[in-house]
Design brief:
This protein is of the alpha/beta class and 265 residues long. It has two domains: 117 residues, NAD(P)-binding Rossmann-like Domain (Rossmann fold), CATH 3.40.50; 111 residues, Dihydrodipicolinate Reductase, domain 2 (2-Layer Sandwich), CATH 3.30.360.10. 32% of the residues lie in helices and 28% in strands. It has nine helices and 13 strands. The strands form three sheets. It has a six-stranded parallel β-sheet, sandwiched between helices. Strand 2, helix 2 and strand 3 form a beta-alpha-beta unit. Helix 7 packs antiparallel against helix 8.
Length: 265
């Protein structure tokens, strides 16, 4: 039996809890949340779950922590979790564009003998991209295309009139590092592509608002010693959060279940 702590009780945390309810060998033993969210956390995770505001407050031991709450949560809780020797799964790859945070998390993991495992999230083909990086990668480009409402709460609102947009429009073009720092709620995929491939500064990113897009669309184009590949996925968003793809929550669950699986792909 694996006992996990869920960090956050938003749309992703809710979806993760729903999927995990189907498995008998994983139990959500704790929720690490912001003050004032206790009632929602109990509704999502059950009345027996331990509620805490930091990992240091937990009374019972946990085997694994899953960050489902975004960049601020990784910054707030990541070091403490890793320093205690607890492996941490995170959806917040974009936060690692902050070089100082990256170094602090890596140091905490080394000190605690633990590991930060960034899930694939809304994108696929990261296994192929990571394998290709063992050789020489000449070029990696990521394009993120969403309906205008999917860019609400991002800098796209200051660059475009999202209510009246009539054609697909690029509102960001630059490095994965800048994309992740400027669009912390929207550009985790860009960061994951960068981490798997040629890094934050050499990975090129385009972010597009498209009124004709019915779903969130992610594309990777990579070239190198291995050859060339293109990958495209059209993801459905979570009902309570149009910025997040449903497969993001599924990727968290897959990572939670992997250590207990006899054969892993």
């Amino acid at each position: 039996m694996q006992t996990i702590a869920i960090i956050g009780c938003g749309a992703i945390g809710e979806a993760v809890a729903g999927y995990l309810a189907e498995y008998d060998d994983v139990v959500i033993g704790a929720a690490i949340i912001e003050p004032g969210m206790e009632s929602r956390a109990r509704d999502l995770f059950g009345q027996d779950v331990e509620i805490a505001h930091s990992v240091d407050d937990l009374a019972a031991p946990i085997d694994l922590a899953a960050d489902c709450a975004g960049h601020p949560a990784l910054r707030q809780h990541g070091e403490a979790v890793l320093f205690l020797g607890i492996n941490l799964i995170s959806v917040s790859s974009g936060a690692l564009a902050d070089a100082d945070l990256y170094d602090r998390l890596a140091a905490a993991a080394r000190s605690g003998g633990s590991q930060l495992r960034v899930v694939s999230g809304a994108i696929g083909a990261l296994d192929a991209l990571s394998a290709a990086s063992i050789g020489s990668l000449a070029k990696v480009t990521y394009r993120g295309r969403k309906p205008p409402q999917g860019w609400r709460g991002s800098p796209a609102e200051t660059k475009l009139d999202l209510d009246t947009l009539s054609e697909a429009t690029v509102h960001f073009s630059g490095s994965a590092r800048n994309a992740a720092l400027e669009y912390p709620k929207n550009a985790n995929v860009a960061a994951s592509v960068a981490l798997a491939g040629i890094g934050f500064d050499d990975t090129r990113v385009e972010l597009i608002a498209d009124p004709d897009a019915a779903r969130n669309i992610h594309e990777i184009v990579a070239e190198g010693d291995f050859g060339r590949f293109e990958f495209r996925i059209e993801g459905r968003s979570l009902p309570d959060n149009p910025r997040s793809s449903a497969i993001t929550a599924m990727s968290v669950v897959r990572e939670i279940l992997s250590p207990a699986s006899p054969i892993v792909i």
